[in-house]
Request: fold
Amino acid sequence: MSEKRDYYEVLGVSRDASEDEVRKAYKKLALANHPDRNPDDSAAEMRFREATEAYSVLSDDEKRAQYDRFGHAGAGAAGFDFSNVGMGDILGQFQDLFSDFFGGRGGGGFGGAGGRRAPQRGQDIRTDAVIDLSQSMSGTKKEVVVRGAAPCSDCDGSGAKAGSQPVVCQACGGNGQVATQRGFIMFSTTCGQCRGQGQVIKEPCELCSGAGAIEKERRVVVNFPAGIDSGQRLRVPGQGMPGPGGAPSGDLYVDVELEAHERFEREGFDLIYRSKVSFLEAALGTKTEITLPNDQTEKIKISAGTQPGTVISLEGRGIPRLDRRSRGALHIVVDVHVPTQLSRKARKALAGLEDELAVPGRD
Reply:
């Protein structure tokens, strides 16, 4: 879609809708547009993707708060985009939810999500990163240090000894679930033999003892988009804790902090700069040049008679917005320097201009 719709509009709920209202609205749309019920209907699939993307954000308190604050610009930077995600991945990610909607099935033939549970992914982890104003303006790639479990280098995270592979669990037939009948009711529970993975390790890796992960410090390259600001969070898919038995890794969340600049201040997407000029420059006018945090230069004209505190605004010279379609403004605040100590010659010269420099209209 060329222009994303508002997530609340997509689900047809108000911005203060409760979690239950969001869930019910999504259930209604998912039932109406699910691919199993609308085969070969690209329009229904698009509506299903759009609703699922909206639900993935509004059902999560943290993502919803970020979306409420920054809209699609913040959400897009944080990674909430289902437009290019395969249907099998979508159905697998929301399998538990779809099971509730469709009576215990994860959504039929897409990606084999039917009766078998998706592999349990690894845990998400969080870290902090500090960037400077120049990096915020231009965008940057920067390494962050993460301490925790990482996929074992000997077995590539499978937990199995080199030359061997995990085998299908005989207890559950590889489904990760076992059925138990109690009276007339069939219950499905996680297999205790393989812990829901559908596979067991006969020959464990010697380095990680079959865990598939080892404790280590690692460096992850994170892409900080132009316009990123303090308090925002970036998601790096697949860089969290490894999943058990070679299952997908969790995600890494990076909380951004912006380092204070000695000459510039940032307010939203605007830059604030205080330009110091002399009394004579303010009175007679002057031209000056300032260097921005990203090393670009801007020529500024101070008009004759400029008063202290005057703000000169240059639109489109500030911080890039996260959608990269526009920039904020550069605001130059004129600070007029009034000397506190004058030589006898300077004092005499100014005294001779007392009448000409008098404040108009003052009693």
In short: The CA atoms of residues 277 and 336 lie 5 Å apart. The first helix runs from residue 7 to 11. The chain has three domains: 1-115, 116-166+201-259, 264-351.
